[in-house]
Please model this.
Amino acid sequence: MKLSCCEIVQRSVYTLQMMLRHWVCVRSVYHISPATHRITELDPLSLVDQGVQVLALDFDGVLASDGTPFPSPKVQQWLDHCVRQLGTERVFILSNKPRPERISWFKEQYPGLRFISGVRKKPYPDGLQAIQQCTQVPFQAILLVDDRLLTGVLAACIAQTQALHIRTPYVELSKHPVKESFFMLLRGIEKVLFFF
Ligand SMILES: [Mg+2]
Model:
C-alpha cells in the first residue's frame, strides 16, 4: 500500500499530535519495559502469566531485517514455540509493510496465524483495533512487540494495548546500506526524544 504525498503529510501531523498526547506512555514503555534486545529473548509463557492473551508482532526489525521476505531460521524456531504456547489464532503480524510474499509465506508456514493488511499504517491504531475485533479480548490483553517508538509503540499507547520495545532490531547494513542507515537514524532520534 503506497502512500500519497498527502497521506504522508497527514500521517506525519497525526504522529506529531499523538506523540505530544501520549508522550508519557511512550516514554514509560521505553524506560520501564524490560530491556528486550531480540524477539527470541521473549518467553511466550511468561507473557501469558502477565495477562497477555494476544500477541501482535511487527515484522521489519523484530522478526527480520528490513525488506526481508521471511524470518531467519532462529526466529522461525521461536515462532514455532510461540504458536505452540499461545495458539496460532492468538498470534498476529502487524507490519507497516504487509507485502504479498510475506503474507503468503505466513499462510503457508503458519496456517491460522493472521497477517493484518488493508489498514492504515502505525501509528494509526487501526491494526490493533482490527486485532481486538477479531479476538474480542480486552485491549489491555493485547501486546504489540515493535522496534519503533513513534510507529508501533505510539499505536499501542493510542489503542491502550500493552507494548514492548525491541532495543536491538535486526539490521543488515551491508544489504541495504541507505535504507538501513535511514531507519537507524530514525530509531536513534526516537531514543534521544524519549530518553529525557
Ligand atoms: Mg519495525
